[in-house]
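Database export, one record per block. Field names are fixed; values are copied verbatim from the stored entry.
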Amino acid sequence: MLSFDLSKALPPKAYLYLSAFMPGMFLEFSILLGNPDLACRLALRTQEGFGFGRYLTLFVGLFLAFVIGNALMLLSGLILDVVELAYRFSVFLREQFDSRVLLPLLTKLTHRQGWTPPKWVSALFLGTVKKVGRRASTEPTPEYLWWETLAKQLLLKRYGLTEKSLPYTSFHPLQAVLTTPTAEEFRGSMLMNASHATGWAALVASYFAPALRTKWYIAFGLFLIASGLLHAYRVAKYLSDPDLGDSLRLQAVLREFPKLRPSGPAQPPREDDADKGEGEL
């Protein structure tokens, strides 16, 4: 019986290109259903002006769906960058407020003579001291220490290096070249980005097809946009974590270990072990 493995027929990252069709096809189908006269006029102009046949017109439609969808995906990525910059700026303002305003104020309140601060003030003071001290600390994080240990083992097993051949220097230069996080770890879920772009496609389609300007259709588009913005906020918050870089590198180096193969020929069993096994049988 013949079997067909679709994963071997498609490129490894085919979903990255197919995801661009989602907002583009949604835009075209929405205009086709909401304003069929416009869709027919465009199809007739293509066939009469360029002499395209039925199948070539279908190919042009698919090509335009990919181009429009890719443009909307770029818009979604641009919005993600803007949200990330805004979040980083808000984090910077919060850090400055904690270190220059909140911490001196709480220090005066908690160290005032003859006054016992409430528990929530003391807890807020300890939490602020911990956050400010952590930002100013230059000690390596536990994630980096784990990454350095695993990276050393990867160099020894994959590249045939020895302990003596490793230089006595920091492993920081290897973080950018030895293991690389995936695109989704940096940019979030591709399906969520495509859904965000589809929301904008719905609003664009309502401009060309007035029949689509109903509350349910507009609400659907706004729902997809709001979900995309919430996803962009979560990605920005995740990327702004100071320990994120080391965590992503740690995940990347752990993915490399299942790919390792034992080097050298397999060792045959010793004669003592073979005789022992025969005696037990």
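Remark 1: The chain has one domain: 16-259.
Remark 2: Residues 16-259 form one domain.
End of record.
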